[in-house]
Write a structure and sequence with these properties.
- The complex is a heterodimer of chains A (473) and B (201).
- Chain A is α/β, with parallel strands linked by helices and 473 residues long.
- Chain A has helices at residues 8-15, 42-51, 84-100, 115-121, 153-162, 187-198, 213-216, 220-228, 244-250, 260-269, 320-333, 359-369, 387-395, 398-405, 454-463; strands at residues 17-19, 27-30, 33-37, 61-64, 103-105, 130-133, 147-150, 164-167, 171-178, 206-211, 237-240, 282-287, 294-296, 304-306, 348-351, 379-382, 408-409, 430-433, 448-451.
- In chain A, the strands form five sheets. A five-stranded parallel sheet of chain A has the order 5-4-3-6-7.
- The radius of gyration of chain A is 22 Å and the shape is globular.
- Chain A starts with 7 loop residues before the first helix and ends in a 10-residue tail after the last helix.
- Chain B is an alpha/beta fold and 201 residues long.
- Chain B has a single domain (6-193), classed as Aconitase, domain 4 (Alpha-Beta Barrel).
- Chain B has a seven-stranded mixed sheet.
- In chain B, strand 6 and strand 7 (157-159) form a beta hairpin.
- Classes of the chains: A alpha/beta (473), B alpha/beta (201).
- At the A-B interface, helix 2, helix 3, helix 5, strand 8 and helix 11 of A face helix 4, helix 6, helix 7 and helix 8 of B.
- The structure holds iron/sulfur cluster.
- Iron/sulfur cluster is lined by residues 66-67, 114-116, 135, 137, 353-354, 414, 417-418, 435-436 of chain A.
């Protein structure tokens, strides 16, 4: 008998049920890979120690240092860490990994980098897996057809101790994007357009599955950019079914299966895509051909417009609380209703973060910067997502493109995405940033963030004002 | 975790929608390795001015906030980062419950894990509550977790939804990690019948 048609998420979920839901107790779900970083883990390890527990599967756990690590150019082996608390936090992670036998890519390691960049580049992120991390952008790993989601520190302790989580199954939402992206429109613009369309809470309670010809045409790094920001629409996870693009990316990576294990794995991965007649709880569609480069104007990622549009007027918003929210956002951003963003001066351009710090992002930005100079008075930071990305970029000479233009070429880390490591905006400064959050103060207290693609960010860096990259090439 | 059964307490209203966890506890306070002490930094950038002085007009600096145990927030509270520091900071400040019309998923999960009750009301009931508290600061709301009801002092009651297991854990102060550890046999069975997909060793 033919079984009920299942989605990609259904298949992964079913495959990881340790104990089914019963008598009001949620499913015990097995975790294939647990990623750990310094900020959300110390209290979880402390919990283990307090209870005399060990880490059940250190062999399924990987730790990295990324959030509060310095990214200043390395002159000696040791980098100055920004403050004593950060030093203590990093030291605590090193001690925890040592005590519990967890592989750690520490500061100075050739494999160190942002947690959501290193998982995929090491080949640890694979189709069909369940992946968790105490970090909301764990959704990034969904690009490989993995069910990957962020958890809190209490749950980090649960996974460390049991390799499992108590979970209720989320609802499903198909995000279908067909058609061909116009020139100059990138994955970042696609996801910003989606969030602007459905709202910052539009995906709450759901996992997204991205489908359609526009998604199929994207490379793995672009797919990661899209899945990364699923959480900005409230969805905990965003997945893309694996295909030849996925397998090609994974083949030969350090932790990917090899030899006959590879063939077995690919055979299993080919079973993962959603069945043709699978049913989703909700569906939304975008037409790729209609999309334009996007930029945010406000203080959450849904407050985004096409780059040549004007800032909306709160007076045209009916809903009183939305109007108040918009007014507050424009006040914070020092913007007038109806104002164009094009031509607005900025102080800083940040290229980095787990959204847009991979080699393809740096190539896009370098393509704009090459032969040009960063505008006077503008500070441009280019922060590769990992040491491996950094080395690759240097082997292609991209670092020289940036430094010769007057940009700062940094060590790998989260940097100004979260401004925990000393890289931050001063109060009142504006930045075009390729990161994922423009919340008040996210890039430094009082700082104003405009989220955009690496193309838009690079074009803005060389002109000093918010610029449509399509007008430069 | 301490059990949560009923709570009758004063409310403070923070009317903004889409309050993200970067506002609840800004990232620069995440360098701690402790759970305690974050209440001092709750909503730091809204609560204090450039000189670190409390802004008199911010709700948490008003006298009624000192004894309030219920935060009445706008729609989609707790969106953004997964930091459990957000519910820790709210609890450390003295809140035992947050009331909204909608919570972000990770925030709700994190809050439930540490005994901070997220109460989802209908927009109509939420509006009434906000109006009452705004008109009369110090208004008390009664939350009965067992009955899943929120009751206004004027006698109006509404039932709120909550996941059955989370409710059970809150009512009885169940330690979820302890509970999960009891699934040991099932977890071992699963591991025997499923090969690990990766190995970081
Ligand atoms: S780059 Fe930014 S969003 Fe990504 S993990 Fe680091 S802090 Fe979080």
């Amino acid at each position: 008998m033919k079984g009920r048609p299942r989605t990609l998420v259904d298949k992964i979920w079913d495959d990881h049920v340790v104990r089914p839901e019963a008598e009001g107790v949620p499913v015990v779900l097995y975790v294939d890979l647990h990623l750990v970083h310094e900020v959300t883990s110390p209290q979880a390890f402390a919990e283990l120690r307090a209870r005399g527990l060990g880490v059940r599967r250190p062999d399924l756990t990987l730790a990295t240092m990324d959030h509060s690590t310095p990214t200043t150019p390395r002159r000696s082996a040791a980098l100055p860490v920004v403050d004593t608390q950060a030093v203590a936090q990093l030291a605590q992670l090193a001690r925890n990994c040592d005590d519990f036998g967890i592989l750690l890519f520490e500061l100075g390691s050739e494999r160190q980098g942002i947690v959501h960049v290193i998982g995929p580049e090491q080949g640890l992120t694979q189709p069909g897996m369940t992946i968790v991390c105490g970090d909301s952008h764990t959704s990034t790993h969904g690009a490989f057809g993995a069910l990957a989601f962020g958890i809190g520190t209490s749950e980090v302790a649960h996974v460390l101790a049991t390799q499992s989580l108590l979970q209720s199954k989320p609802k499903s939402m198909e995000v279908r994007i067909d058609g061909q992206l116009p020139r100059g429109v990138t994955a970042k613009d696609v996801i910003l357009a989606l969030i602007a369309r459905i709202g910052i809470g539009g995906g709450t309670g759901h996992t997204f599955e991205y489908s359609g010809s526009a998604i199929r045409a994207l490379g793995m790094e672009e797919r990661m950019t899209i899945c990364n920001m699923s959480i900005e629409a409230g969805a905990r996870a965003g997945l893309i079914a694996p295909d030849e693009t996925t397998y090609e990316y994974l083949a030969g990576r350090p932790f990917a299966p090899a030899g006959s294990a590879w063939d077995d794995a690919v055979g299993a991965w080919r079973q993962l895509p959603s069945d043709d007649d699978a049913v989703y709880d909700r569906r939304v569609q975008l037409d790729a051909a209609q999309l334009a480069p996007m930029i945010t104007y406000g203080t959450n990622p849904a407050m985004a417009i096409a780059i040549d549009e004007r800032v909306p007027d709160p007076a045209e918003t009916r809903d009183a609380s939305r109007r108040a929210e918009l007014e507050k956002a424009l006040r914070y951003m020092a913007l007038e209703p109806g104002q164009p963003l094009l031509g607005r001066p900025v102080d800083v351009v940040f290229i980095g973060s787990c959204t847009n710090s991979r080699i393809s992002d740096l190539r896009l930005a370098a393509g704009i910067v090459r032969g040009r100079r960063v505008a006077p008075g503008v500070r441009m930071l280019v922060v590769p997502g990992s040491q491996q990305v950094k080395r690759q970029a240097e082997s292609e000479g991209l670092h020289r493109v940036f430094t010769e233009a007057g940009a700062e070429w940094r060590e790998a880390g989260c940097s100004m995405c979260i401004a925990m490591n000393g890289d931050q905006l001063a109060p009142g400064q504006s930045a075009v940033s390729t990161s994922n959050r423009n919340f008040e103060g996210r890039q430094g207290k009082g700082g104003r963030t405009f989220l955009a693609s690496p193309l838009t960010a690079a074009a803005t860096a060389v002109t000093g004002v918010i610029t449509d990259a399509r007008t430069l090439v | 975790m301490d059990p949560f059964t009923t709570l009758t307490a004063t409310c403070v209203v923070l009317p903004a929608d889409n309050v993200d966890t970067d506002q609840i506890i800004p990232a620069r306070f995440l360098k701690t390795t402790e759970r305690r002490g974050l209440g001092a930094h709750l909503f730091a950038d809204w609560r204090y001015d450039e000189n670190g002085e409390p802004r008199a007009d911010f709700i948490l600096n008003r006298p009624e906030a000192r004894t309030a145990e219920i935060l009445v927030a706008g729609r989609n509270f707790g969106c953004g980062s997964s930091r459990e520091h957000a519910p820790w900071a709210l609890m450390d400040f003295g809140f035992r419950a947050v009331v909204s019309t909608e919570f972000a998923d990770i925030f709700r999960n994190n809050a439930l894990k540490i005994g901070l009750l997220p109460v989802t009301l209908t927009p109509a009931m939420h509006e009434r509550l906000v109006a009452l508290v705004t008109a009369a600061p110090g208004t008390r709301l009664t939350l009965d977790l067992s009955a899943q009801t929120a009751t206004l002092p004027i006698g109006v009651t509404e039932r709120f939804p909550i996941d059955a297991f989370a409710k059970h854990c809150l009512l009885h102060g169940v330690d979820q990690l302890g509970f999960l550890l009891q699934a040991e046999a099932a977890i071992s069975d699963y591991e025997r019948s499923h090969r690990s997909r990766v190995c970081t060793r």
